[in-house]
Amino acid sequence: MENTILQPRFKDSSHFKDFWTKGNGKQLIEFSGAEVNFNDFKKFAPYFYHVDEIGDQVVREVYLTKKFHEASKEIEQYIRNGVSENDNVPESVKQLFQQTQRIPDWLDYDLIKSGAELCMRSNLDSLISLRDYCLIGGYDYAYLNKPLIATEALKKGAVKRLSETLDFWVNATRYNALEVHKKGYEFAIKTRLIHSYARVSLKKYYKNWDTENWGEPINSWDMMATYIGFSLVFLHSLHKLGNTFSEKEEKGLFHLWKYVGYLLGIPENLLPNDKKQATEYFYLWTSVQPPADKDSVLLAHSLLNESLENPILKYQFQRKNLRYLHICCTWFLLDDEVCKRLQIPEVSNKNTFPRTKWLINKIYDKTVSRQARINKGNKDQMKVLSDYLKITHNSNFH
């Protein structure tokens, strides 16, 4: 695909213009002070056809030469014990671990700690933001979803998908989690190889992949956009829900996800340092994405109905109520246009819950100490994760 010259092909489309002049894009520009234009488009566009070659090579040399569970066990050993220059392992494994075991010069563990504390301190608002803004909002970008559809993620069910995202997010955002060989580091390496495994399989078995339009499966530019979801979009959501954060926490959040992106093999020049940069990068990427299609609607509804299938809550009325609250938050956090495209159901009094939450956050902020909120948030998030893992580890579930 080297000879394909990518253009910002949707920059004159109404979905793109409306998002950036009237919708959440406009809010992101105001929130971040970004200056958006297409001056740097040529610098970013090649990454639509760029992938993590090292990860793909590890998959070919380790996963495709033995049984899956044996390969996973082998990789786990490397993650936990490290790999050195003299180890008798495939060359690609050496390359992968040379990169991820090397601490980049720019890394600041103190900043990462502040970012992790913001994630914990925001308690259930963090989980609402991930689900009802970052995840469901991402479904509006039709090409971004193509790998999910091609790998039949819908068949796996939203409970399992949500559980996996939550497992990764929680484990990446605890104290010291991203130090080499620790749990967050392990999750980053495993996620990187899952992406590579999916990509190698898609290239092999999915004959209808339209590289020119959709980019390479799980390409570096799409990966950048996904991680901007965890930083910029997440931060904007917390802000909309009435949370405040210090400059250091904000900087820390971007730093944390920059490092996770580095571990995942995303090229460093695609990883933004702050909300201004993130908004400018995101603007360029959205210009190559068409609006939601029928697959987007299926993914969004699968996520909305997750509350009804999920046995964490015992009674049907509780599940219906939880679904209603998520729908309220989705309408509150996303643009109306996006909600209409994703066919989010209309519900009555949809602003009551989010606005009450906003008010409670303002009071909570002034009356409860930061450390107490971090401790409580950590405990509550770990509880939600453990509930999800109990359900999805139960073999009868999907």
TrEMBL record:
The record's GO molecular-function terms, alphabetically, read:
oxidoreductase activity
Pfam families named in the record: MPAB_Lcp_cat
Q: What is this protein called?
A: ER-bound oxygenase mpaB/mpaB'/Rubber oxygenase catalytic domain-containing protein
Record-annotated ER-bound oxygenase mpaB/mpaB'/Rubber oxygenase catalytic domain positions: 154-348
